[in-house]
Amino acid sequence: MSLSLYLQVFTSRRIATVTLLGFSSGLPLALTSGTLQAWMAVDGVDIRTIGIFALVGLPYTVKFLWSPIMDRFVPPLLGRRRGWMIITQIALILGIAAMAFNSPKQAPLLIAAFALTVAFSSASQDIVVDAYRTDVLREKERGAGAAVFVMGYRIAMLVSGALALILSDNIGWHNTYLLMAGLMSIGVISAFFGPEPEEKIIPPRSLQEAIWGPLKDYFSRRSAVMLLILIILYKLGDAYAGSLTTAFLIKGVGFTPTDVGTINKGLGLVSLIVGAMFGGALMARLGLFKSLLFFGALQAVSNLSFIVLAWIGKSYGMLIFAVAFENLSGGMGTSAFVALLMSMCNQRYSATQYALLSSLAALGRIFIAPTSGFIVSAIGWPAFFFITTLAALPGLGLLWWMRKEIAASI
Known about the structure:
Layout: H1 3-8, H2 13-31, H3 34-43, H4 47-52, H5 58-61, H6 67-72, H7 79-100, H8 108-136, H9 142-183, H10 185-193, H11 207-219, H12 224-234, H13 236-242, H14 245-253, H15 257-286, H16 288-302, H17 304-312, H18 316-343, H19 350-361, H20 363-368, H21 372-379, H22 381-401, H23 403-409
Helix pairs in contact: 2-8, 2-9, 2-10, 3-9, 7-8, 7-9, 7-10, 8-19, 9-15, 9-18, 12-22, 13-22, 15-16, 15-18, 16-18, 16-22, 17-18, 17-22, 21-22
């Protein structure tokens, strides 16, 4: 298959809409976390108060609790998915603008309330955007859809993170947050003009069905439990290595924060986007199972490059190679993994099922990441990264063992 045929999958109206929705989903996150922390620090807010503000991010971790409501009820305009997108995006514009007209130093409780509103609205937008992406993309477009979504999301995080910090020095925090509120109109426009799913989807008939229907539907499938275990294990090695990468580069090898910011964050972001785009295009030919296997193997091997860096020491050439390799393979793996999650969702319950599956995917990382520091202290950096490579093998082994079930069940 020629390159032009690979790239054709990226040219549809559905893919363009998903790209812009990726930007809309990624923009609010930093405004209630890193960027808000910077604003509070510059404003002279007490460090204990800044630490407590981490609780603002709670809605992102429990968003599956209200996802059945977004499956069950259909807004009066623009249908079940686009209607909810418009509602959440308008709430985001108002919430971010409200933050702009207040001060963390003078009105911390008001800022906390508005930040929590923004986080809740952002998590709700994520629910419905994930469901819309699952419903609207054709099977051959899922890899490309995942890729462009990741690209839009990461660019938006850069805009509301690094760019917002730069802007705050020039136009002030209030104007910066107003500008970010205005940029949310990109999501409103994309939701308004986005296409509807090609197949008519009947929503759950009751809230009870919206809550229990997704579970009954999923567990009625063959190998349902094993697929859940696969979701937990597939990105485990990649996430385990990533939990201490920045600390390793600074404390373990001796690079400066500027080196890490420029190469690990800057080059890493570009490499991740390129990997996601390339992986999404390649999936059109390889199919889901082969992509998961090939990209997953690359993710595992990429961790070994950090072992070489630990042996060599402070080498900029090796740093560039390791960061580029790890993020390229990670981006490719993410495209395949998101496509897997989409393929496991019944469109009738896609908001709830995707929210549950994506939360489950983070479970392994949450429980294994805290052990990383103890492992490094006990056996050192090279052995730690070797263990992260080994941590990827159970997921690949289970993937191979379930190759027929993956093709038949989803």
